[in-house]
Amino acid sequence: MTQTWPILQNILDLADDATWAHALEVSAETAAVWLKGVRAEEVRRIYLTGCGTSCYAGEVGRNILEQIAHVPSQAMHAFNLGQYLEPAILGPEVLVIGISTSGSTEAVAKALAHARRYGARTLALTAEKGGAVAEAAEAVVLTGGEADRTPVKTKSYVQTLLSLFEVAMALAEARGLEARRAYWRSEMDKAAEGTRRFLEAQREEVQALVEAYGGAQIVFILASGPNLGTAQEAALKVIEMAKMYCEWAELEDFLHGRYREVDQANPMILIAPQGRSSAHVLDVLTVNRYVGAPSVVFTDVVSEGIGELATQVVQMPVSLDELATPLLYITPLHLFAHQMAIRRGWDPLSRRYDDIVPHRVRYGNLAAGLVGGQRL
């Protein structure tokens, strides 16, 4: 009997339109309630804060909010925001969005409390309306990710991005801007359709990459613009699930010195939908071809240059506005991370050192020689 892997089932749930519809419905409803208590026209800056997957969703969300709501935005790690963001730059014209699917991330709750203490408006973006993160914020927008119970998040990441689109559209409309709601909803529908088609017909392409690079020591994942957060999230999942080195980088920045890390065995994955960075993708591929580095390109348009220079190409089943591409491109990469774990003999759910340290270790426990109340 074939083993059912919980994370794989979560990934496959994204082939179901109901997974997408639930996120859009609950986020639209709760965003409308939130805006009743906010003077949207006074919001001059937005910080998105979270840990791990949630922080990387915030990096994608930064682009979504800036392009749709026209508010300068920045993603920050929750600990940094809570401990180092200068109180003098907070205030009623600043909105801090704390992202946590579980609703219990301590650092996010503390970051929201810090922002609120110094007068900023605060919003929790979470699947759990009764958790510590929701309690620390003035208002809550739900993401619909409550069914994603595994510690390694996949489908709820996509649902969080959908909720960020809803927040951005609602904020734009409240600020008197044209949010192009019908256009963005259409792009979300296309992303859902593309995800379904990929999972139904193209999983073998991902498995072929796994077989080709299952013995690699490191994977590089490069992107620019809206997909910088996609690269961050994908790299985290390769690390979490496959327990191997994985580095993300911005396309241009990688050209500035990091090629000393590249060799002829370890793959470089480029997230390259048609868009503003398309020409720059060819620059990276040209150097890769020159040094003999394997290049794997995820794209919707296989240009002549990509076809000539890439080692492997995975063509996505639909083309989207570049801002919406993170909704689609992360799922094949989540699948790649999961299958790399299986290929390398790891349970994707396990933590590498669970057999040694089964609980979260804090410095105080280490100093006392204790973990989880038990002596080491």
List the helices and strands and how they pair.
Blueprint: H1 6-12, H2 17-35, E1 45-50, H3 53-69, E2 73-77, H4 78-84, E3 94-100, H5 106-117, E4 121-126, H6 132-136, E5 139-142, H7 155-174, H8 181-201, H9 203-213, E6 218-223, H10 228-242, E7 245-250, H11 251-254, E8 268-271, H12 278-291, E9 295-299, H13 304-309, E10 312-315, H14 326-343, H15 363-368, E11 370-371, E12 374-375
Describe this entry's structure for a reader.
By secondary structure, the protein is of the alpha/beta class. It has two domains: 6-179, Rossmann fold (3-Layer(aba) Sandwich), CATH 3.40.50; 200-343, Rossmann fold, CATH 3.40.50.10490. Helix content is 48%, strand content 15%. It is built from 15 helices and twelve strands. The strands form three sheets. A five-stranded parallel sheet has the order 2-1-3-4-5, with helices on both faces. α3 links the parallel β1 (45-50) and β2. α4 packs parallel to α5, α7 runs antiparallel to α14 (326-343) and α8 runs parallel beside α14 (326-343). The two termini are 39 Å apart.
